[in-house]
Each structure stands twice: as structure tokens, then as C-alpha cells.
Amino acid sequence: MSVPSQSHLPTDESIASPTATALRRESGPAKFRLRNVLMIVVPVAVLAAMVVAVSGFVDDALLGDLTRPALVPAKGQVTYQGQPLLNAQIGTQPTGRGMSALGWTDDEGKFTLKTDIRGKYVDGATVGEHRVTVMAYGTSGGPSAPPLLTPEQYASAGTSPLRITVKRNPDENEFKFVLEGDAPSRPTRPAKNKQGAPKKHGTPSLPTEGKQDAPDLP
Question: Where along the chain do its domains lie?
């Protein structure tokens, strides 16, 4: 009688039920999917925990410096009526993301833009397009507001035609503005009488006709 060879002996897989075999085949892809999910979730969770831990030791001001847009040097000159405009305030307002900047002209009408960072003006302006306002005021001789010496349209970002585009290369950020138009007319002062006091218009004078002189007292 011949003994069956080992190659014909039944194995565990051949005697296992079809249901168990199917479960083993399905468990392979499930384990693979779970491993992929863990490879994504675990690093993200660790990174989030590190950010939370670090933020507790970082000052809010430092975070602001890290997240605010970069500042790039920018300068220019303003002329009005063919002359440099001195003692004028230059203001910029970004049309998109960014921060406003300010500048003040010198005797030659030249200015350098600065940005207010926590109450301190830092040289530079944010990259991008800005609307520009220009205002120069005279001196006031009394309690009234000082007169505006530049055309009124340049005093508001909504009406000013001036635009600049601050670029990342500082050499491209030199601007020239030529203001056009007339400044607002000053209000007329009331006329003065001979004693120097302003005349009061619209106050009727008392009639003198029929007025009797008071008798002299003994």
C-alpha cells in the first residue's frame, strides 16, 4: 500500500471553511487602510500639540511680527503749482491686504513712507496697490480750523486720483505726485466798524426821532 506524499496531504487552508478564508482576504486591505490613516493623523496631531505648546511661550507681539506683511522702503516727492509742497501729510490706504502708511514732506517736498507698528513708525510700506491722499494746512489765527492749502479732492482716499504700487524691489518704489486744481477758498471775515469790532448785520437801529433830552438836575 502506497503512502501519500506530503504534496498531496491536506493543508490548513484546504480544510478551512470558505467563510474564514474570505475574512482573512478582506482583513488585509482593512489593515492597510488603517495604517495609512494613522500615518496621516498621528503626525498632524503631534504638530498641532507642538504649536499649542509653543504658542503658550511666544509673545503676541512676536506672533504679530511673524504674520504681518513685509515692509519695503518707499519714498517720493510732491509738487503743487510748480513748487515743492512742504509740510504736507501723505497717507496711503491699501486696496487689498496690507497696512496703511504715512509720510511728511520736507522743504523740498520729499517724503518717506512709514508704517505704524504698535505705536511706533517703521520705515517702509506693504507690497501692493495703495490709494494716496495729500493734505497741507495753513496756520489758524483763532479757534477755527486751519485752512486747507491743497485741492480738496486729494484729502480723501475715495476721491483722490493718486495711486501707487509698492513693489518688492525698493529701487522701484520712488513716486512723484503733481497736484492739480485750486485749494478751497477761505471764508470771508465779517467787516469791521471804525472801532474795530465786527459789524452786526440785521439788527435794526433805534429811532432817534422825537427823542427828548433829560432835564438838568439842580
Answer: 14-55, 71-179
Cβ 134 vs Cβ 120: under 8 Å: no
Take residue 10 and report the three cell numbers written for it.
491536506
Neighbours of 111 (CB within 10 A): 23
AA identity, residue 173? N
Q: What cell numbers appear for 91 in the block?
A: 497717507
Cell of 157: 482716499
Q: Please, what are the averages of pLDDT over each run of 10 residues along the chain (218 residues)?
A: 52 53 56 69 75 56 59 97 96 94 97 94 96 94 87 96 96 97 72 51 48 49
> CA 162, 168, 174, 178: dihedral to nearest 10 degrees?
-10
User: In 16-109, which residue ranges form alpha helices assigned H by DSSP?
Assistant: 18-55, 60-67
pTM of full prediction above 0.90: no
Domain at 71-179: CATH code: 2.60.40.1120
